[in-house]
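Hey,
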Amino acid sequence: MELIRRTGKLRPSVEDGIELSGIEMLHPGGHALTQRTAELAGLASPDQASQTTSRRVLDVSSGRGTQSIFYAKEYGWQVTGIDINPLMVSKSKQNAELVGVGHLVQFDQGDSQSLPYANESFDAVINECAVGIPDDPRRVLQEMVRVAKRGARIVIHESTWIKPLSRERKMELAERYGTTPLECDEWKSLLEDAGLNVDTIELTPWSKPEMFWAIRSDRQPRGFSDILTLSERMTTMGQICRQFGCVGVLRAFQNERVFTRAVMSGEIGYGIYSGVKR
């Protein structure tokens, strides 16, 4: 198996545009996929209801803390979120206090490829849509398994190649998207190599095109072109222009169009993968 290495030649990618928008975004699948993730991680298990405050879940690459806060608020677990971006960590702490779960959630700054936690520290480990963003997804998974207790559940969901594609096409789409999709069997193999017994793989319904634009928590877009409002799109284009120049704006539109066609044609989809640490 060969991991596609992105070079940034087609930046700003779709992921760059989402980050530069400054808008609170979820992942493909939205809240429904976060809830399914929590179920597979065992956060909602009835036999754990009386001991949730003593059980710890790690949310790797936690972003603005949306998912970490959800786990704490809905299930009462002690949640640790970690993200490499200090601005995201600061925002996450503010958001947790605003919704009254600051006592259940802590946010740390750190690299998902080198987690600053001891072996077997967590009862569950989750990564929502961020295994493929760092340089070495294999290392991310190894670190997630390392810090999980033996028998702990680990859940990821990630972009997945649905149709057979050439290496060149995969490289192009990975560059335009800004992440590293893999085939379903490749994700399974990486997880197994990291020390996981994979027992759940779901590509349906998460690979439906509408799941890719169900990423707003404040409203329901009707398609890719509706994810950002006109004013939000103009602001984002300004941010892209300042960082990447006018050529970057043209590149962003081109990347969006190519990526949209790939999703609509079923070349790329989304999958959730779960299992137990051996």
